[in-house]
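Q: Structure for this?
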Amino acid sequence: MTNGSSAVRSDLRKKRRFSKLEQGYMGFILILPWLIGFCIFKLYPFISSLIYSFTDYDLFKGAQNFVGFENYIDAFTKSKNVKALQVTFAYAFMTVPLKLIFALFIAYILNFKIKGVGLFRTAYYVPSILGGSVAIAVLWRALFKSDGVINTILAMLGFDSINFLADRSWALFIICLLRVWQFGSAMVLFLAALKGVPEDLYEAASIDGASKSRQFLSITIPIISPVIFYNLVTQLVQAFQEFNGPYIITNGGPRNATTLISLIVYNSAFKDYKVGLSSAMAWVMFVITTIFTIIAFASQKKWVYYSDDDGRG
Amino acid sequence: MKKLIACVLTLVLAVSAVGAMAEGLTFSWWGGDARHEATQAAVAAFTEATGVTVENTYSAWSGWEDKMSQYFASDSAFDVNQVNWNWLFSFVDGEGKSKMYDLNQVADIIDLTQFADAALAQCTVNGELLAIPVSMTGRIFYWNETTWQKAGLETPKTLAELMAAGQIFAEKLGDEYYPLALGTYDKMILMVHYLECKYGTDWVTDNKLNYTVEQIAEGVQFIQDLEDAHVIPSAETLIGDGADSLDKNPKWMDGVYAGIWEWDSSASKFGAALSDGQNFVVGEYFTDIGEFQGGFTKVSLALCIANSAADKQTAAQLIEFLLNSDEGARLMNSQRGIPLSAKANALCQTEGLLDPMVAEANGKVIAWCKNGLDPQFEAAALKNSDGVYADAFDGLSYGDYDVEEAAEVLVEGINEVLGA
Amino acid sequence: MSKIGIMFLVLSIVLLGLGFYGGSVQMPEATAAEAAQPGAAAMHLAQYSNFYLLLGGVILFTVLYFTIHKRVGLKTQHLMSTTVRYIILIVVGVFMVYPLLWMVSATFKDNNEIFSTLNLIPARPTMEGYKLAMTNYGGDINIWSAMLNTYKYVIPRVIFTVISSTITAYGFGRFRFRGRNALFALLMATLFLPQVVLNIPQFLMYRNFGWVDSPLYLAMIVPSLFAQETYFVYMLIQFMRNIPRELDEAAKIDGCNIMQTLVLVLVPMLWPAMVSAGLFQFMWSSNDFMGPLLYVNSPSRYPATLFVRMSMDADTGFAWNRVMAVSLISIMPSLIVFFLAQSQFMDGVTAGAVKG
């Protein structure tokens, strides 16, 4: 029994080939639960909802006449739906920039050696854990009602009380504020990213005479741009789907000023029994979200700098 | 790994199957705390008497209609359900078959003779008796006498008195105070009451609206006048209070709003909500609105058996017990309004179990209201917080619509629902 | 000092002056007819005096800061900027934390006091809020059983999520197989899939399975058996990228099969990420409102989120201290878990997004 080198080599080759094959099936088997779950819990409902959106599926009457694009036309022409689209856009484009700017600003300030960084970080992060919980939504209503805490503070400053819950522009604002208040999660990411920027870059820039703001714009921002990108996309997607806040705090009011698309989807299905229309609106929302995500991804090349080359977040 | 998944799935399926085979009945209702307690006691008595276990599901009204729609729609409603009157007409499948069981089939178990024919007729659709009405109800004024006395006034007996009270409240008590507070649905019903007092005709007959846009505009103007005369707070003020309903509104509880327009069957919770030292009284109908006695009564709520119930006979027994038996009547008493069942009514009266205020109010309502109600009045598209009534009245109050426009919004919306 | 600086300095002095003047104006009594009535402008100043003082003060402070900052040595500059940072952090921190502190203090106040003052310390502390919070609704459910119900599905969900996500991440992260890239793209796509699109068909489907109102909370738990929370799979894959493949190979040479490699070698290294995933899922599931809203019927099975909503409607009247107490108790566990495991949270959050 001689283990000549050629025999060893062929053994090894067999092993590698065998292990490649093994790898070929094993990986697939490992992700099989996910794939099954995906087909049952995501793919099937996803396609069903697309199909429903082309019918007049009623919660009670079942289907089913194919009505073609009628639901989609309703989605874009009925004033209630168009308003919801506008409100959703307004909400998303108010909340996301505010949230990101705050998060970056605070992360920037927090990014230096002081005692108690941990304490501040915790204080800023706690609101985001409580998330869209019912308890916080109830709290928000207590704060902003006409004799609530915020109005008491305003009175101290001499302002007349503002009817936040009933004024159409303010109502949307307080819904945004609820999310902006929860900027902690984005802030933590920015903080970690800021810590990853090498100090010597700043020093070199200072020596070259660059001002602090110049440094920030030309060094900090580009280096943390992947994180900005990640935050931007995730926050935008989340903002388009917002439900809990408007549902519990203002119930879509006043006069539909805080009725986001997600509320229309819920109401048309469970209150008006129009599952077809509801699915169509949900799909409209999905398509819009996807479009913005694609725009964001496509724009990556312009402003996001990755430290390695594969260009994936 | 695969084995594990297979085991878990089997286990899951087995347990679901077991769950589905559970014996006994399921019963659902909505209400406040007092109603929950009373009903549970009654159900417990039923279990003791018959040995049948009953699983209860109950909650507050908020969000309950959505839930029940889902369950009826997917044929997974509970065996016995407390239903709102309009559900009888909307919980219908694609072929027009109701989701509720025809109770004429169990007339041997449920004593239908205890109920007036007119009441049963209201719950009969296409010849099928879909539910047993528990009580009739209508809207009537209730006043916080304490606040009225503070303003130096008696509670109003005429519309003129109410209109005058607005200014007096503002001057004597402050701008915050209002003699009456109305939510959007309250406004709609009051307006219909007003018009029916003036013109006498029912609101809708045979799916046709009986009032012209001009007449409705008069009604809308009436509501606007109430707001202009400081009788009722604006929609903005009410929304800004941040309360889900008037009985949860601190301004009602502290007497800043001194009146409501409520169903006699559910007004007691408003009285209970008042903080100490305030006097809650039933009001009078105004005779100076018009020559007719306008206003409608409707079945407040009813008990039905879902078509998906497995054991309809036992379910019928539960309904019979709750509504017609001595013990059931005693325990349920007037938590759902004054009972329509003759037996229950008589028993409660003899034993003095009826809440005196509910009895007083119900008496006045039944004596006064002469009009009927069409089933579509409470359709979801009209009554919901984003529905036609809210659009019209909130739009009016916010200044988006003037009186004519609000009337048109109402007419268009109602016709759309009726025509559908 | 620059022109802009002088301008702002003047502005701040003017504002402060107006503020002080306004504060000194006597507001006319309703009955004092003889007292001199101040003019309309003075009335305006009197009302807004606090605001002008605040605004003036802030602008003055900013101007002084920037002026001095330029003229002092490096050490003082550093000291100044540190102080300002602290001030900003504390001010913003107060805004972040005040609502929660207010909520806690409201639970100890009686109802009349809650909205009359801004104090965080109640003038007349009372346990009334908590006593009322212990109410048993119809004998079927109270706050404690509601909390218990929440954990009946939160804990299985957490365990199943962590296990299934790890296995799936392992499959995607360490293996090559036909179609991997396509399936991975599919995985990423689900990250952006709005749940709203799926709600109704899922509801109809679960109803067919008989999972609605299941005593085992099946509708809430079963999907997590199948790694349907893409966020965690993604996070674990990212984390796994940082574990060198040599470890896998070394394990293989030592005779480990696939599963042993996973459990004995990778999991210990992945552990922080797994814990973070578990913690996040714990938080999110505890706060889930839509899920129970659709799939839990019987009050005896209500989790904390539904209980909070129900308790708002159920009682007569509306006691804010009770509502706040119930809300606070319902979020307590999440807060406690967070405080105990802060660092894991932060690590987990960053693992998914920050490279290198």
